[in-house]
Amino acid sequence: MTKRILVVEDNDLNRKLFCDVLRANGFEVEPVADGDKVLQTARDTSPDLIIMDIQLGGVSGVDLIEAAKRDRRLSAIPVLAVTAFAAKGDEERIRAAGAEGYLSKPVSIGPFMNAVKALV
Q1: What integer is the mean pLDDT of 87-93?
Q2: So what's the pLDDT on residue 87?
Q3: ∠ CA(42), CA(120), CA(60), 5° rounding?
Q4: Which of 4, 8, 89, 101 has the highest local Cβ count within 10 Å?
């Protein structure tokens, strides 16, 4: 069965890149640009992985990760945080929120796909 990945990214170019790479690697993709729609879209589509941008307009990706991990329908879905936050302590803070994986931008395709495959 094809694995479904929810791609949460408010930057159009990054979202398209992530989705294109994932589709080229055989994944089904559900893109989301609006942070306010993330949790409901995840409930509606039951993805096998959530790729979460941390800096979203209007809502924090960290808050969304924490909310997903508190939701009994979403808590088991692994989260790969992809973020421009790369300061000391950021990875620990994001993992403490519940993210199973962490990549800092700019993202290279090889490490990105390795991280995705490790989580699905």
Answers
A1: 88
A2: 77
A3: 45
A4: 8
Q: Helix, strand or coil for residue 2? A: coil
The vertex-61 CA angle with 93 and 16, nearest 5°, equals 125
Tokens of 78: 């692994």
CB atoms within 10 A of CB 81: 27
Q: What is the mean pLDDT of residues 24-48?
A: 97
Q: Kindly list the domain boundaries of the chain, sorted by start residue.
A: 4-119
What is the pTM (predicted TM-score) of this model?
0.96
User: Prior bond to 47 cis, omega within 30?
Assistant: no
The one-letter code for the residue type at 17 is L
4-119 architecture in CATH? 3-Layer(aba) Sandwich (3.40)
